[in-house]
Write a structure and sequence with these properties.
Length: 311
């Protein structure tokens, strides 16, 4: 029997997504499927990165991936019925990645999900990176602290009349030095390129990108992203090396909580590498709770795509 791998049509999308995430409990499956469908209808999710496997119109497998603005792909491990290998998806997926000049693929595995790790590592050439911990903080009326005080000052990019993109890019780059949060990924793309991609996207709001200062000196950054469904994300916070170890991270998180309150969001979200113990402790001390955990695998593609071009 011949297995046909294809991208789903818009009419097939919901069924394909429910197959790809079929390992989830029903309520989580519905939430994730509806979220992806909403992204598709908003034009931020392409069918090109979603695959289905069929035999005579009978779906036997599905694979979800999403091209991100930093030229990486976020994916979940393919789901196949017993007797079929996830390796069937690798060739069309690689063609999709190389066509879009993808730098790296990050493959997520939901907690408790059963999958063929041997095939993913040996045939797919992925390597286990770490665990990604997702945290959430319910935003209450008391989160908005009108009397917020501290040692730090926060200046959004929208505060300045001149273009401050270059100083922001330089400062973010400085905060990456000797980071404990997925240090292997810091070299995927230049900081300036990543920030430019975020700026060109619909998610960029200059009033949510902050220079963090102490005594008129830039010592860190706070980048936040407003999201649909009444939530906001603490996308990235960082301090230069000289400013670490003084408790300033807790103050940055407190300020992010204040912004979430001022914008009347219901939840403040963030995520962190499980190996970044200090950051995790900071979030937990500020009231965040762990709501999900995923294994994360990585595959760097530049050389593989170059090799394919030579064939």
């Amino acid at each position: 029997m011949t297995v046909e791998i294809s991208n789903p049509s818009s009419q097939e999308l919901e069924e394909t997504l429910r197959f790809a995430f079929g390992h989830l409990p029903e309520n989580e499956l519905t939430i994730r499927t509806n979220s992806m469908l909403e992204q598709y209808h908003l034009g931020t999710l392409s069918l090109e990165g979603i695959f289905q496997a069929k035999i005579q119109d009978q779906r036997i497998g599905a694979f979800f991936s999403q091209l991100r603005i930093d030229q990486t792909v976020l994916s979940w491990v393919p789901i196949m019925k017993d007797g079929f290998s996830i390796e069937l998806f690798f060739e069309p997926f690689m063609a999709f990645c190389c066509k879009n000049q993808v730098i790296a693929v990050l493959a997520l595995v939901d907690l408790g999900q059963q999958f063929d790790e041997t095939t993913l590592v040996s045939a797919g050439k992925f390597e286990l990176l770490s665990d990604l911990i997702y945290l959430v903080l319910p935003v209450t009326a008391t989160t908005e602290d009108s009397d917020f005080t501290g040692e730090l000052e926060f200046f959004p990019m929208s505060y300045f009349s001149e273009d401050v993109f270059e100083p922001m890019a330089e400062l973010v780059h400085a905060t990456y030095r000797n980071t404990r949060d997925f240090p292997q990924l810091m070299q995927i793309a230049p900081v300036k390129q990543v920030l430019q991609m975020y700026q060109s996207g619909q998610i960029f709001l200059p009033e949510l990108w902050f220079f963090v200062r102490k005594e008129n000196q830039n010592i860190g950054v706070l980048l936040m992203t407003d999201q649909p469904e009444e939530q906001i994300e603490l996308t990235y916070m960082g301090l230069i090396e000289e400013a670490r170890g003084h408790g300033y991270s807790r103050e940055i998180v407190r300020y992010a909580k204040r912004i979430a309150g001022l914008r009347k969001r219901l939840f403040l979200l963030t995520s962190v590498d499980e190996q970044n113990i200090n950051a995790l402790k900071t979030y937990l001390s500020q009231g965040f709770r762990v709501w999900d955990r995923k294994n994360i695998y990585v595959k760097f593609l530049k050389q593989e795509c170059n090799d394919n071009d030579k064939m």
